[in-house]
Amino acid sequence: MALAKSVYNLLFRRTSTFAITIMVGAVFFERIFDQGGDAIFEQMNHGKLWKHIKHNYENKDEE
Amino acid sequence: MIRNFTCDVITHSLRHAFECPVCSTQGRCSKPQLAAKMMSLAARSGAFSPYMQATAFTVAGPLKALVPGVVVKTEKILLNPKKQFLCRESLNGQSPKTGPSVTVSINGCAGVRFAHTDVRIPDFSDYRRPEVLDPKKSSQDSSESRRTFSYLVTGATTMVGVYAAKTVVTQFVSSMSASADVLALSKIEVKLSDIPEGKNMTFKWRGKPLFVRHRTEKEIATEAAVNIAELRDPEHDKDRVINPSWVIVLGVCTHLGCVPIANAGDFGGYYCPCHGSHYDASGRIRKGPAPLNLEVPYYEFPDEDTVVVG
C-alpha cells in the first residue's frame, strides 16, 4: 500500500508526470514486447533458422 | 369554517385544539389524504386567511399515517379514477396561486408536493468495487488503492496504445522510403563505348525496353532541322536529348505498346510493326496511328563513357 501510494503521488498525480510515465513505459514495453516475441519465435523454430545451422556450412579452413 | 379544522398531509402530526370534524378524533389525525392548510396559521390570520392558506383543495396522496389514529373508519381512498392523478394538468388549479406561494413560471405553480415513495433505487452493487460495496463503510479508507489501480490500468492501456501507434506509423513511413537495394534495381548503367555510331541497343529497364541510340552527325543535323510545325507532337530535338549524340527513349510504341524496330521506317528512326507507326531518329512520331513521341526517361551522364537511367 505504501508502494502504491508513493507510485501514485510520484507518477500518476500530475498529468505531466503521468504522460512522461506512459512515454518511458512505452519504450520499455516495446523492448520487452519485441524481444519477447522474437525469443518465442526462435524457441518455436529452434533448429530451423540459419543461425542455428550456420556452423554446418562454414568452411573450416577459413578460420 | 370546517376547513379551518381539517388537517394537512405535512402537519398531520400536529395536535388539534378541537375535535377534527372530518375524522372525529381529538389529537393525532389519521386522515392524511385530506390536505388543507396550516390550521393554526389560517385560524389566527382572520380576514387574511384566504390569502394565507397554503392549499385550499383536497389533494389525494398515497401517504398513510405512520401511527394510525384511535378510530380508523376506513382504509378506502376516495379517488376519481377518471381524474388525472398528480400530473401538471390535474394539479394546475389546486396549487396555491396567491399568498406565500412559489411559482416556477408564469402559470406553473410549485406548491404541489409530489410524494414519490414508490420509486425504487436501482441496485448498482454489481458494478461497484468490493471496497465500496458496504454503504456504511467510509470509502475514503480505500480511495488510495482504488485510485492507484484506476490510473495504473489507464496508463498501461495508453502505453500499449502508444506502442501500437508507433509501430504502425513506423511501418508506413519505412515503406514510403524505399531501401537502397530496391532503389538500385530501378536504375541501369549503360557503358556508351560499347555502342558504335549509328547503332541502337536495347536494354531492359524497369521491365520495359530501353533504346540507347548513338546518332551520327548526319542524323543529328537532320533532326535539328525538322520544322516543328509539321510534327504531330511538336517537340524540338534539343529538348529530347542531353547530349545530341545519344538518344535515350523507352522502346514502347505510344499507340498500343508494341516494341518498335530500330533503324527502320520512312524516317530512319524506329518503326512499329504492329500498326505501322514511323518514328524519326529522335523518337518523334512522324507517320502512323501513334499519337505521341517515344517517352524520354530521366537520365544523366556521370562521366563521358556512362549513362545512368532512372
UniProtKB/TrEMBL annotation, chain A:
Record-linked SUPFAM superfamilies: Subunit X (non-heme 7 kDa protein) of cytochrome bc1 complex (Ubiquinol-cytochrome c reductase)
Alphabetized UniProt keyword annotations: Electron transport, Membrane, Mitochondrion, Mitochondrion inner membrane, Respiratory chain, Transmembrane, Transmembrane helix, Transport
Membrane topology: Single-pass membrane protein
BP GO terms, sorted: mitochondrial electron transport, ubiquinol to cytochrome c
Domain of life: Eukaryota
Pfam families cross-referenced by the UniProt entry: UCR_UQCRX_QCR9
Record's subcellular location: Mitochondrion inner membrane
GO cellular component annotations of the record: mitochondrial inner membrane; respiratory chain complex III
InterPro entries per UniProt: QCR9, QCR9_sf
Subunit structure: Component of the ubiquinol-cytochrome c oxidoreductase (cytochrome b-c1 complex, complex III, CIII), a multisubunit enzyme composed of 3 respiratory subunits cytochrome b, cytochrome c1 and Rieske protein, 2 core protein subunits, and additional low-molecular weight protein subunits. Component of the ubiquinol-cytochrome c oxidoreductase (cytochrome b-c1 complex, complex III, CIII), a multisubunit enzyme composed of 11 subunits. The complex is composed of 3 respiratory subunits cytochrome b, cytochrome c1 and Rieske protein UQCRFS1, 2 core protein subunits UQCRC1/QCR1 and UQCRC2/QCR2, and 6 low-molecular weight protein subunits UQCRH/QCR6, UQCRB/QCR7, UQCRQ/QCR8, UQCR10/QCR9, UQCR11/QCR10 and subunit 9, the cleavage product of Rieske protein UQCRFS1.
Family (UniProt): Belongs to the UQCR10/QCR9 family.
Known role: Component of the ubiquinol-cytochrome c oxidoreductase, a multisubunit transmembrane complex that is part of the mitochondrial electron transport chain which drives oxidative phosphorylation. The complex plays an important role in the uptake of multiple carbon sources present in different host niches.
Protein name, per record: Complex III subunit 9
Species per Swiss-Prot/TrEMBL record: Lates calcarifer (Barramundi)
Gene: UQCR10
UniProtKB/TrEMBL annotation, chain B:
GO molecular function, one term: 2 iron, 2 sulfur cluster binding
Cofactors that this protein relies on: [2Fe-2S] cluster
Coiled coil: none
Cited PROSITE patterns: RIESKE (PS51296)
Bilayer topology term: Single-pass membrane protein
Predominant localisation class: membrane
Domain Rieske: 240-308
Keywords of this entry: 2Fe-2S, Disulfide bond, Iron, Iron-sulfur, Membrane, Metal-binding, Transmembrane, Transmembrane helix
Gene3D superfamilies hit by this protein: Cytochrome Bc1 Complex, Chain I, Rieske [2Fe-2S] iron-sulphur domain, Ubiquinol cytochrome reductase, transmembrane domain
Cell location: Membrane
A single Gene Ontology CC term: respiratory chain complex III
Sequence similarity: Belongs to the Rieske iron-sulfur protein family.
Name used for this protein in its record: Ubiquinol-cytochrome c reductase, Rieske iron-sulfur polypeptide 1
